[in-house]
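Handoff note, outgoing to incoming analyst
You'll be picking up this chain. Sequence as last confirmed:
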Amino acid sequence: MEAHRMKDDDEAVRSALTSLKTATGIPVTMYGALLPDNRLQISQWIGLRTPALQNLVIEPGSGVGGRVVSTRRAVGVSDYTRANTISHEYDKAIQDESLHSIVAVPVIVRREIRGVLYVGVHSPVRLGDKVIEEVTMTARNLEQDFAVNSAMRRNDGGKANTKSGRVMNGAEWEQVRSTHSKLRMLANRVDDDTLRKELEVLCDQMVSPVRVKQSTKLSARELDVLSCVALGHTNVEAAEEMGIGAETVKSYLRSVMRKLGAHTRYEAVNAARRIGALP
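Most recent structure output, in case you need it:
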C-alpha cells in the first residue's frame, strides 16, 4: 500500500476510533485492517491495557473479526470465551486483555471489505442496540472517508484536480444525505401531485451519480421510511413525519429489510446506499 494512502486512511481510522469512544463511552475501540491474504490485523487501538491484542493477526472465519469478514455482517458477543457463535482460537489473547463483551462491524468500500471496526469492554456487561447502531454508523462514515481518500488519490497523484471537479469530504457527504432525507419528507407533505413528482425526481438526481442497476425495487414509501431512519428517527418520529401510523412504519421497514436482506434498520440504510437508492 502506498505511503500516501496509508497516511490518509490511518488518520481516518484514528478519527473514527476517537469519535466512537467519545460517543459511546466504551473504553476499547480497535480497527482490524484486511490483509491481502484475507486475514485481519489489529492495526490501531484505543484503551487496550496489555499488548495481547496489539497487531494480532486473525485468520479468516476465526473469532469475532474473522466471522465478520466471512459473513459481511456485524457480530456481537456478551461473553467472548463462552460464546457459541464464534470459534475460540484467540481466547487466550482476549483473556489476557480481560475483555468480555465485543461488537465488530465490517467496513466495506465498493463492495470489498477493507477492515473491521471493534468496540469492547473489560466488564461482563451486554452492549446494547444503541452501541451497535453507533458502531455501525461510525463504520459507514469511515467507509465514506476511505472512498473520498481513494477518489482524491486518483486525481493528480493524490491532489484534487480542480479542472475535473472537487471531491466532497465526509462532512459534505453527510450534508447531502441529510438534505436528501429532508427533501423526501418535504415531498411527502406536498398535496400537489405534479410538484411532489418533481421533488421526487430531484431526490433521484441526488443519488444518480452512484446509482447502479437495482435487482431490488423499493417503493416510494419504503424509501421515505429509510430516509427517516437515515436521519436517526425512531418509528414514532418517522410516523409523525410521514403522517402515518407507527405500525405502518414498522410494516414498511420490515418489507425493506426483507428485500435488502438486512437484519437491522441501519443495515438496511447501508444496503440501500450501496444500490444507489439513498445517497
